[in-house]
């Protein structure tokens, strides 16, 4: 795992949960703050295990969709309470992507909301040719298919104007996210006491949710040809292609591989602005990349790259293969501490 901070507050959150016969990975790419991504990392894994236990300790795609929906419902309720009881509107303009993966008894399940991405590297054929597969779509407005999806969801008004307003104002870069309640729930826009900052105003009136939290879901039984999975937040994939990342992992030593990928992304970000990596890492962090005139302020890190999270999982030493018995641990992407995973309680309850 590797993480690089660009904003004043680290908006990316990530986790790896290791069980005896299962593995969970989550990447939560925060937007306009870390409130939504912190909410997800605090709740999603425990909720996922609860649903698996209710399903007779079995996993399926429906559970993935349900747990993402729970995060959406829970965080938007948190935003509503913050507004109604504490007169805070900030939570209404905060969101996060949500990329989760669980390998459960040899089957891989992946769900994604936002512009994070997971790619599977396999070696196939006599020559062990590297095959790279992006398992779930990323919902970035840079993707022409996502632009088309957005306009098709809103056929009853000038959708070009509405999309243009979201894109040009830089309100959000993805069509799907957890949170951003203001663009999903009329409760916020119809209350007179809810004041929308000028920077957030989209073409009124509110008629239906502008954004979605519907995840893209993928599953497959892992085979002996599957070698590794690379997980990354949007800040990583904006700078490195699927093929480039997979080639590096396939041909490089495993030690500190995620750090190597993150460094390559930083070098790319620096090169786009014609500076060196050593100069980039000296630039201070900030949560604002625009000046009063709307031009990017190149005196801050966020003008060169977003927060970056990279996780690499190798698949050739799965539990109970070649005597491998993993420790039940929990790892966070921006914290070197190793903690006991919630998998421990899950297994204890399953054995009762």
UniProtKB/TrEMBL annotation:
Descriptive protein name: Uncharacterized protein
What domain of life?
Eukaryota
Organism of provenance: Trifolium pratense (Red clover)
